[in-house]
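agent> Task received from the user: take the single chain below, predict its 3D structure, and emit structure tokens. No templates, no multimer pairing.
agent> Plan: (1) validate residues, (2) run structure prediction, (3) serialize to tokens, (4) report one or two observations.
agent> Step 1 OK, no nonstandard residues flagged.
tool_call: predict_structure(input=
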Amino acid sequence: MPRKRIQQSPLIQSATKEILKKRGKLGKQIKLKQPRHLERQYLKGILQFHKKARDLVRTMFISQLANFQSRALDSLNLDGYGEDISRTMEQVKIRFWTEVTEPDIERLATNAGRQIEAFNATQVNRAFQSVIGIPVDAMFPDADEVIGAFVKENVSYIKKNLEQYFSEIQEVATRNFRAGRRAADWQGELVKRFKISEKRAALIARDQTNKFNGELNKTRQMALGVRTYTWRTSEDDAVRPSHEDLNGKQFAWTGEPSPPEGHPGQPINCRCTADPDIESVLPPRDRPK
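)
tool_result: status=success, residues=289
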């Protein structure tokens, strides 16, 4: 966002002056909520693609392990099993990307991006209304461009994870047959590969949801003239110690003091939020004592 937008908001200044004149104090500010339900919803959609990939691997690849094994044990066809594995996995991928297209993934990411944007708009607006009593969402910058960037990045992450799953299945089969192991002894490794891909999908959903929410929070607060914020953790057992130390402390969106690892949502897997210091919009002489 252009630096020139980081300035005091005349509308907010006017509203707060009126409140101070009539009531002598601002309203009690509510804390911003975290989009955990949207993270879960996004993950559910991503996992639908992964389950499709797993089902095709089962029906088209794992069902052929006995044939691969026969080729691997045939001394006259030492390399034949490798070609079979490679060819079969390529058929799996072709079938998968026919049934799951890039536009399908784009639709999922677009829907997630729009829901996160709407959630954040509501949260920031409610926080300001709780203090100054007027809505401020009309002052938010247009979000189409940042939603588009979110979609592009997330489509790339989801596709990469799916392709990695296919590659790992192929690598596990090739490595074990080359070592002379029978399929029955190592099929459990294929199940583990799917669980690992699920964990990566969960990281994508969690990290990207909170990063985007944090990015929108920063952009909107700065557009409204907010200079500083209070770091808030999710206050559960999963909070990393370094972020627990930041809880309740005040930081600046630009300049000092700045958090050591980036603003809330920026560090990987960060679920923290930034509660706006709405009073920072006021000139020092107009701030409540």
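agent> Step 4: summary for the user.
The first strand starts at residue 228 and ends at 232.
agent> Done.
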